[in-house]
Amino acid sequence: MQTKRIGNIILIQLSDTDSNIYLIDDMVIDTGTGFNFPRLYQIFKIYKKTFEDIKFIINTHAHFDHIGGNGFFPNAKIIMHKLDAPVLENGDSSTSYADFFGGQLKKRKVDMKVEEGFELNGLEVIHTPGHTPGSISLYNRKEKILFSGDLIFADGFGRTDLVGGNREDLMKSIEKIKGLEIEKLLPGHGEPVLKMVKERIEFLLKNEPEEV
User: Fold this and answer.
1) What H or E segment, with its residue span, contains residue 137?
2) Rounded mean pLDDT of the chain?
3) Is residue 41 included in any domain, yes or no?
4) Any residues with CB less than 8 A from the CB of 146 and at least 6 apart, and which?
5) Nearest CA-CA partner of 56 in 121, 117, 144
């Protein structure tokens, strides 16, 4: 369990199986599996926050390790791309891979089913399919920060061998974000890239395996 402050963003890493959770004022980006309530509660306490303070959850995609903890935040509106929203609304434990993590996905309403161009609190939704059909990245144009979900990490790209994955779409999405001015890359797992982001992406592209 660890946290890291990046400007006004708090990166929370609960375990190897949880997604990164990003806390920004009254909003969280992704919520982990939901298996680590005590740890998350203690972290919120350290930062003088309560779960009730959170008004918005943005899920980068509908895999259980990113959405399983949505229920922790009773006052939050859930935001997800319209193509992935049915997984959560139907409680689809198979497509969400809740079964793989030893969990069960509870049906929850997605309050805002968004598309590319939607903006909230300075974050712009960019549709970046490939890992799932409704995967999104979130771009802060002013601060040149990209939250990339499971599209790209510090050391590689997202998987495309899961239900709904598509390698061709993923590579098109990588090309799309390459055109953005990015100074900080904050991925869905692992460590952030806080300098030379473009060079990192180019390196990964040159060294990508034939199958992702």
Assistant:
1) strand 136-140
2) 96
3) yes
4) 137, 138, 139, 140, 177, 180, 182, 184, 185, 186, 197
5) 121
For 146, phi then psi, to 5°, come to: -120, 125
Instruction: Let me know: does 127 contact 151? Beta carbons within 8 Å.
Output: no
Which residues are paired to 125 by β-bridges? 138
Of 142, 137, 165, 164, residue with least CA distance to 153: 137
Domain assignment of residue 169, yes or no: yes
pTM over 0.90: yes
What's the pLDDT at 196?
Answer: 96
Residues 6+ apart with CB under 8 A from 175: none
Q: Is 65 helix (H, G, I), strand (E, B) or coil?
A: helix
On whether the CB atoms of residues 128 and 201 are closer than 8 A, the answer is no
Number of domains in the chain: 1
Q: What is the CATH number of the domain that holds 158?
A: 3.60.15.10
Is 211 a domain residue? Answer: no
Grouped pLDDT means (10 residues each) for the chain, 212 residues: 93 97 98 97 96 98 98 98 98 97 97 98 98 98 98 96 96 96 98 96 84 46
What pLDDT, in 10s, does the model give residues 157-174? 999 999 999 999 999 999
Q: pLDDT above 90 covers what percent of the chain?
A: 96
Residue 108 within a domain = yes
Query: Domain range holding 91?
Result: 2-206
